Automatic annotation (TrEMBL):
This is STAS/SEC14 domain-containing protein. It comes from the Bacteria. It comes from Nesterenkonia cremea.
Amino acid sequence: MIEVVSTPDGLVSVWASGKVEKHEWEQVTDSVNGAMSQHGQVSLYADLSDLESMSPGAILEDVRFSLKSLTDLNRLGRVAVVTDSTLTEKATAASSRVFSDLDAKVFGQDEAAEARRWVQLERTEGL
């Protein structure tokens, strides 16, 4: 299951749980695309602490979106990922190393409030 909330200041928040299918992950990519069309920069808060798995279609949708967005990375502000998954943590760290403009940080499940503050701090500093 996916819940996506976009705020007027360009913050997209995502909560994922259980097994996520392609049509559900498209809600995320559509929300980020929509926010990017309305704002100079967009930040992302993704709470994946209850995510069990993603279908192959959802993974391909994420990869497709990521590749398509390579030229827009400068429009992506902070990315806060909440998870206790080592695999997700490593993938996020690898993305930050490969894409030096990407300001992504992983927080543990017990640090969700800190992750919200970190990603929202940038919003209040006037992207």
